[in-house]
Design goal:
It is a single chain. This protein has 205 residues and is of the alpha+beta class. It has helices spanning 9-17, 54-66, 169-173, 175-204; strands at residues 2-3, 43-53, 76-79, 89-96, 101-119, 122-133, 139-150, 155-166. The chain has a single domain (25-74, 108-204), classed as Alpha-D-Glucose-1,6-Bisphosphate, Chain A, domain 4, CATH 3.30.530. Strands 1, 2, 3, 4, 5, 6, 7 and 8 form an eight-stranded antiparallel β-sheet that branches. β4 and β5 form a beta hairpin. α2 (54-66) crosses α4 (175-204). The protein is globular and about 50 Å long.
Length: 205
């Protein structure tokens, strides 16, 4: 939904209520569970950033994911007060500054991540979730937000992955600008997670 004026909280609640029975707008559900390097006709994007070290940083990273703090306030708001759970519908409000548009987009949590894995001989703990676009979203596809703790070197990483295609005709028409904004979101999201973890860890000391 493209809007000239920022929507009120009531309008956003009404919008979300209309999404309850809407289907996902793509077929590759769960495609971000793994790390696809390439999918034909799909954009596969990833951003990894170190956010800290140790168990405390991992715990704060988990809290940041649960409270949606990876959404950079400079350009996006996540209109939801609940922690991620499978089946939860959310609305993302995005400010496209140069064109002075508010974009309200609907997504649904399709899986959760809470696991211990072995990667290249290293023990890694992972926490996060993936959500997919609903039929009113300007894009189609899936995005994964995960925080990882590598127990070998004690590093804690934020890992964002997105698989997408433009769906709305405006998104297709403005494809270069759209790709620029997607890259900007990934960069600012990583910075938001770094701030969230460092601030919380410092506050505990």
């Amino acid at each position: 939904m493209f809007l000239i004026l920022k929507p009120t909280d009531e309008r956003i609640r009404e919008y979300l209520a209309r999404q309850l029975d809407q289907p996902l707008s793509y077929d590759l559900v769960g495609c971000t569970r793994q790390d696809p390097e390439r999918l034909s006709h799909w954009n596969v994007d990833r951003k990894r950033a170190i956010v800290g070290h140790g168990e405390a940083a991992f715990g704060k990273g988990k809290t940041a994911i649960e409270t949606w703090r990876m959404f950079p306030p400079e350009i996006a708001e996540l209109c939801c007060q609940e922690p991620p759970r499978v089946g939860l519908n959310v609305a993302v409000l995005y400010w496209a500054a140069p064109v002075r548009l508010w974009i309200l987009m609907a997504a649904r949590v399709v899986y959760l991540v809470n696991e211990n894995i072995e990667r290249d001989g290293n023990h890694v703990e992972r926490f996060g979730f993936g959500y997919g676009t609903l039929s009113d979203h300007a894009e189609r596809g899936e995005e994964r937000f995960v925080v990882e703790w590598n127990r070998r070197d004690d590093s804690v990483w934020y890992d964002l992955m997105a698989v997408s295609q433009p769906r709305h005709w405006l998104a297709r028409l403005a494809y270069p600008y759209n790709r620029y904004e997607q890259a900007r979101f990934r960069r600012l999201s990583a910075a938001a997670m770094q701030r969230a973890v460092s601030k919380e860890v410092s506050a505990d000391r």
